Amino acid sequence: MDKIIRIGTRSSDLAMWQANTVAQQLEHFGCETEIVKIDSIGDIVLDKPLYELGVTGVFTKNLDVALLNGKIDIAVHSFKDVPTQLPEGIVQAAVIKRGDFNDVLVMKDGEDFFTEKNAVIATGSLRRKAQWLYRYPNHTIVGLRGNVNSRLQKLEDNDWNGAVFAKIGLKRLKLLPPQEKHIILDWMVPAPAQGAVMVAALDKNKELLEYVKQINHEDTAKCVKIERDFLRVLEGGCTAPIGALALIIKEEVKFKAVLFSPDGSNKMEFSKTVPVDNAWDLGEYGAKFLLERGAKNLMKSIHASNVEKATLIYSTKSLSLDQTNLLDSKIGVGSSDFITIRNNRLKRILVKKPIKNVVFTSQNAVEALLNNFDATELDFENIYCVGRRTKRLIEKRIGKVAHVAKDAEKLATYLVENLEDKNVTFFCGNKRRDELPSILTENAIEVNEVECYKTQLTPRKIDEKYKGILFYSPSGIESYLEENSTSSSVAFCIGETTGAEAKKHFDQVIVSKVSTVESLLKSVNTHFEEVEE
């Protein structure tokens, strides 16, 4: 490659080792490299455990920004620090061969303390903390942050019995203590992708991606993908005690994964061995296996553990970890689903002939239709819809949208003014609103309604301590009001239709600027920031 490849990295000794290793491997293939140091919030804020920072990708965000701004060509990360969802435009370019994945206990004065009832162990990792307490419930865990050298020094300076480290970090920096001063914790399941180094680059830089692919280690990439798929489906991150390890041994993948409660009192485990060729979905399968057996409730309790914060809100739809991390650190959130969507079974004859005009007012209708038919069976001449997210889904899965409107009333008005053929097929749910079919019928447009899904209310009583309630549909409001009063809470609504319904019941209603969860959470941050000021 003709150009010099600028390698972005954090400035810690371990990060520099990783960047230099990548540089050496690239230079082996004949290119020149330059290392660019860029520090992260995870390197700067050292007085809190990672799981208290409330940020996804604390060690990677600044490097992501540098990539997107063109200051570097590739970024080198410790793969276990990388969020499961990469920023738009950034892709995984390579994974270099994995090192030792084990955790080790570095002991201050030997292992005699194991014979005693109490001990003090240091770690900044919630995963290590939970697994240690599960095995040694009488021990005390204290926080430990900083680079490898500073953590070893803190162990010396404090009255602790030991501290837990990744073995690979100590080995790479030649800091692993002698055998009598450390114990390999082979019972502790490592973090997903522990010991692996990932190289990230821009998706649009195809020539660079092809070049960097030369240093990719295929077996390592396969294993860490399985581990990270497990993490992704469970929606875990620094705030969830999740361990996962996949190993390729004699053409088989041996996979083990665990989920703990933060205090180590509960443990869920999955393990399976499959041929390498059949392992592509093993991580996702393992996560779903646990979710069906109680992990969903355990994860919800972990996500909701921050509700002791100053400002409390409640979402009437379950939020992912990445979504809750968009909220200000002072805002605690609880969430659960107040409605359940069930797709109806539709007859094949429905789409046997081409349909000239079809209308969708929700993503649920699109997904319900696709649950019954393959996209190739859907022969629609003109597609009309409500909402840009619905439009994106339709154009990704079915075909071009002729017109999109902000709400059902505006779409109906457009159709009255512009539709030549006075007939539409309206794919909807059992609780669809009346505006669109009423306006069309009043203007002599025939509406063929196809109920393709059912919205079922799942009301539940929540504590009155919440200062804001998040709503995503009029049905969600209906479900909420079955068990709860409007009290003095602020209603945050995802769109104008939901907002209009909320105004019938709540004194204060705030509607997000855009009909997305991200925009709704931004409106929550803005509101409570203004209240505090």
TrEMBL record:
Residue intervals of the Porphobilinogen deaminase C-terminal domain: 222-288
GO molecular function, one term: hydroxymethylbilane synthase activity
Biological pathway: Porphyrin-containing compound metabolism; protoporphyrin-IX biosynthesis; coproporphyrinogen-III from 5-aminolevulinate: step 2/4
UniProt xrefs under InterPro entries: 4pyrrol_syn_uPrphyn_synt_sf (IPR036108), 4pyrrol_synth_uPrphyn_synth (IPR003754), HemC (IPR000860), Porphobilin_deaminase_cofac_BS (IPR022419), Porphobilin_deaminase_N (IPR022417), Porphobilinogen_deaminase_C (IPR022418), Porphobilinogen_deaminase_C_sf (IPR036803)
UniProt superkingdom: Bacteria
Record's keyword annotation contains Oxidoreductase: no
Porphobilinogen deaminase N-terminal domain mapped to chain residues: 5-208
Pfam families: HEM4, Porphobil_deam, Porphobil_deamC
UniProt-listed Enzyme Commission number(s): 2.5.1.61
Keywords: Porphyrin biosynthesis, Transferase
Catalytic function, reaction form: 4 porphobilinogen + H2O = hydroxymethylbilane + 4 NH4(+)
Cofactors that this protein relies on: dipyrromethane
Assembly, per entry: Monomer.
PANTHER family membership: PORPHOBILINOGEN DEAMINASE
Function recorded in the entry: Tetrapolymerization of the monopyrrole PBG into the hydroxymethylbilane pre-uroporphyrinogen in several discrete steps.
Stated family: Belongs to the HMBS family.
Protein known as: Hydroxymethylbilane synthase
Protein source organism: Lutibacter holmesii
